[in-house]
Amino acid sequence: MQEKLNIAVFVDYDNIEIGVKSTLRREFDVALALDALKERGDIVAKFAYANWSRQESATRQMAENAIQMVQRVPSPRGDKNGADINLALDSLEMAFTHDHVNAFAIVSGDSDFIPLVNKLKEYGKTVYVVGGKAFTSTILQQNCHEFISYESLLDDGRRAPGRRPPEERPQQPQLGAGPQERPDRGPRMRSAPLDLVQAMPLVERALQVLERRAVQPQLGLLKSTMLQLDSAFSERAYGCGSFSEFVERLKKADFINVSGTGGRYVIERKAAPAIEAPKPEEAIPLLRDVLEMHRLELEDGVLADQLLEWMKAENPDFDHVRYGFQEFAEFLNFAQDKTVVRVDPDEERGLVVFLGAEFYPPAPPTAEEEPVISEYDEKQPIVPGQPSIFEPTPPPAPEPKPAKRARTPRKRAAEAASSTTTRGTRKRTTTTTRKKTPPNS
């Protein structure tokens, strides 16, 4: 039997709120994220991190959903990552102290949580990430067990009994005008569904994996395998409300063979589609050319809508949906991870696009100049056996020779007397010899 999941939810409210406002043009509703997580297990703990003194309008929905609000008090010098550090510490503490919690859900799109996701996976925890595909880092989407896009929750027509959708709920007075009342921004249109052809590479790969394991590819097993290969997969991106509907549409398009009845479907591969969808990487050169042409205008940043107009003006056939992106903001998010652009979300203006790090390469190293030696510079002595800048590991210094012992005054006097006696003896011997020699006749 599948292990029961006890999920602890951690909400980075400041990040998710500005992301939803700037890309989806509406207020963040935490109930949508909780309903999606309840379909995957039991929620046993719920925490939300923010400076709640500035988010009074959100405290009501947090209290309605029994979410514990953790106050983040900013320091006088500012703490941009204060909530991230608190969230990471609390989640790791829960992983160490609560053995029954075997799944964690991080509601945020911040790429700073990638080390936290990897660490929780090391401890055998199932990790979900809830965020928008338009502002959540693609690296974060691909490294969790399952990514739940907030856009798919908005497009989903199902809701809990007695609960009205966000657009029908009365707005609180402190929230100001809702997204539908802003004449400059307008309501968000439903995202265009992707073509089924773009899902076929992932379906083919998952079916090949199951064939190598000698396992019958049934519905649940096929979806779990597809999520293992691509945690960002969602059948709702293709306009399907369930995975069974997704498989039925693949069958009608003659992409796969489906046999069996009563919910026990067996899926088999067919020939690859004759038409292959372009890959997401193929749209990067088109964007790079437009950025190069409008480089001066992008120095101060431009809105994403303006950049889209430039893209279509230079490439009339350009359509981000053909490359696997439901929204143009998703494409910009993908390009940001490729360092082509830098996207700055703004609550009032929306997404502001700047040139990425690719357009600002590091300066080449300067030629090495000969050092100017001053008359005051002293050359440091090199001591044998001592490390220096030229020889970090020098050979050992040679052993010093034993020094000669100094002669004492008494010994020098004795040697002098001995030398005098020897010279006197030699002189007397010479005189005696001379006397014994007979004179020449």
Q: Describe it for me?
A:
The protein has 441 residues and is an alpha/beta fold. The chain has 3 domains: 1-164, Rossmann fold; 196-276, Nucleotidyltransferase, domain 5 (2-Layer Sandwich); 280-359, LOTUS domain-like (Nucleotidyltransferase, domain 5), CATH 3.30.420.610. The chain contains 14 helices and 11 strands. The chain has helices at residues 13-24, 30-38, 56-64, 82-97, 114-122, 138-143, 150-155, 200-212, 219-229, 243-252, 284-293, 304-314, 328-337, 409-436; strands at 6-12, 42-50, 68-71, 103-107, 126-131, 146-149, 256-259, 266-269, 302-303, 341-346, 350-355. Strands 3-2-1-4-5-6 form a 6-stranded parallel β-sheet, sandwiched between helices. The longest helix is centred in the C-terminal third of the chain and has 28 residues, at 409-436. The radius of gyration is 40 Å and the shape is elongated.
